[in-house]
UniProtKB/TrEMBL annotation:
Gene3D superfamilies (UniProt xref): Immunoglobulins (2.60.40.10), PGBD-like superfamily/PGBD (1.10.101.10)
Official protein name in the record: Stage II sporulation D domain protein
Organism superkingdom: Bacteria
Assigned keywords, A-Z: Signal
InterPro entries listed in its UniProt record: CarboxyPept-like_regulatory (IPR008969), Ig-like_fold (IPR013783), Peptidoglycan-bd-like (IPR002477), PGBD-like_sf (IPR036365), PGBDSf (IPR036366), SpoIID/LytB_N (IPR013693)
Residue ranges of domain Sporulation stage II protein D amidase enhancer LytB N-terminal in the record: 171-254
Peptidoglycan binding-like domain segment(s): 345-400, 422-458
Keyword Transmembrane: no
Signal sequence range: 1-27
Length: 462
């Protein structure tokens, strides 16, 4: 009897241990993320090389390219991983890309142009090092001594970006003439982090594009034959590396231009700090730059993480700027009112809560649409002859919004300040008015600085 009980308990114990061991593994499997790697192999003339060997030794991956010269891998990982990509093709010099990063939920795009192995020295692999990120080195851009003067006297409109830019490849000692959009796509992932939120990446795409655009018009290196260096002295450029997410951010914002006094300006940026301050730990402290002429990269992440749009991030950091369209671009259509209900969250909800408070409802504007907010919405709808469903849609917005302008104050002003990403103090002053003017210019609205129904819709819908 004792023996039977002993074996029975041992069996139950084994089963329990098995469940304990298996449960976390199953959960981990369910939550596993994926990172993608796509390598395009070409010869020096840009023609695809098929049957080239592509491998990532640290992950035990190897395959060959297809007829289009493309090899693709998918890796299960919840963390970013630093990898080395090795490429070999008969008759060509071996090629290595070091210190590239695989990022979960993104695709690392590697371009591997192979040269012919014609000499003994070509038996050694060509090594491409991904440079240290500005966010790890805190290296500032090198300002031109005349930039302050140029920012004051520069006049005229700059409506069309250049078709090419001349880049000095410092480590190679040569000048490359690069398609301008291709250049920006191969700068952004080396200045911003591909895993960051889309709105931060879009703000970075605009800043990178504007800085380079400015440099093609106003020489930083007169007589040298190039517009920028490929290092942190200007913007880190690597023609071999890009990401699906950063490419999309460049495409999404390509029809827009960032202008000051109706002209392209030097949109500098530096690492900065992860906070909502324009000065804490940023370029003004470390490098003596003027606040309002630069953006914090970490700060853009903080603002995006807290619901700010790329437009509001740019207008938060750069003073007196306007976001318009480039020549041949299209003005974006007015966005739809967002539908808010129990379970919604973010700045749209916080702004709606401020508007409810402006109508006398006692609420905490915390950006979380819970039972208290739903009850206030139902009560407001009933009082205004609307269907009391607790959902904020177009008809509820029409009753909820209030016209505000320079000189206004209170919770309705806090609502628009929340949506614009400016300081939320309830006082409609010059800074808030400028942000409103920028928003109106973006959607080709009447630029009067007054927040009426259409401007409210643009602010909520952006």
């Amino acid at each position: 009897m004792l023996r039977r009980l002993t074996w029975r308990w041992l069996g139950l114990l084994s089963l329990a241990l098995g469940l304990l061991i298996q449960a976390p593994v199953s959960a981990q499997t369910r939550n596993q993320q994926r990172a993608n790697l796509t390598v395009t192999v070409t010869n020096i003339d840009g023609k695809p090389l098929s049957n080239a060997s592509v491998s990532v030794a640290s992950l035990g991956l190897t395959t060959t390219t297809n007829e289009a010269g493309i090899a693709h891998f998918t890796v299960s990982t919840n963390d970013s991983q630093v990898i080395e990509v090795a490429v070999e093709s008969q008759g060509h010099r071996a090629w290595r890309l070091r210190n590239a990063q695989l990022i979960p939920n993104d695709t690392l795009l590697v371009d591997a142009p192979l040269s012919l192995a014609a000499k003994a020295v070509d038996q050694q692999p060509e090594i491409i090092e991904v440079q240290a990120h500005r966010l790890t080195t805190n290296a500032p851009q090198e300002a031109n001594l005349n930039d302050a003067e140029l920012n004051q006297i520069m006049a005229g409109t700059n409506t069309t970006p250049p078709s090419t830019i001349r880049v000095y490849r410092v480590s190679l000692g040569r000048i490359d003439t690069v398609n301008f959009k291709t250049y920006v796509k191969h700068v952004l992932p080396n200045e911003w982090v591909a895993g960051w939120r889309t709105e931060s990446l879009r703000s970075g795409a605009m800043a990178s594009k504007t800085y380079a655009w400015y440099r093609t018009m106003y020489p930083k290196y007169p007589g040298k034959g190039y517009d920028t260096k490929d290092t942190t002295a200007d913007q880190v450029y690597n023609p071999n590396v890009s990401y699906a997410s950063t490419n999309a951010a460049v495409d999404d914002t390509w029809n827009y231009r960032l202008i000051k006094n109706n002209a392209i300006f030097q949109s500098q940026y530096c690492a900065g700090s992860y906070n909502g301050s324009r000065t804490s730990g940023q370029c003004s402290q470390n490098h003596g730059w003027t606040v309002g002429l630069y953006m914090s990269q970490w700060g853009s992440k903080y603002l995006a993480d807290n619901g700010s749009s790329w437009r509001s991030i740019l207008t938060f950091y750069y003073d007196n700027v306007t976001i318009g369209t480039i020549s041949g671009g299209t003005t974006p259509s007015l966005p739809a009112w967002p539908s808010l209900r129990n379970g919604s969250s973010g700045n749209d909800v916080k702004a709606a809560q401020y508007l409810l408070r402006s109508h006398g409802y006692s609420l905490t504007a915390d950006g979380a649409f819970g039972a208290g907010t739903e009850q206030a919405v139902r009560s407001f709808q009933s009082a205004n002859g609307l269907t009391a469903d607790g959902i904020i849609g177009p008809q509820t917005y029409a009753k909820l919004i209030k016209t505000v302008q320079n000189g206004s104050s209170g919770d309705a002003v806090r609502a628009i300040q929340t949506l614009l990403g400016v300081t939320v103090d309830g006082a409609f002053g010059a800074g808030t008015e400028q942000a409103v003017l920028n928003l109106q210019a973006t959607y080709d609205l009447t630029r009067d600085g007054i927040v009426g129904p259409v401007t409210w819709q643009a602010a909520f819908g952006k």
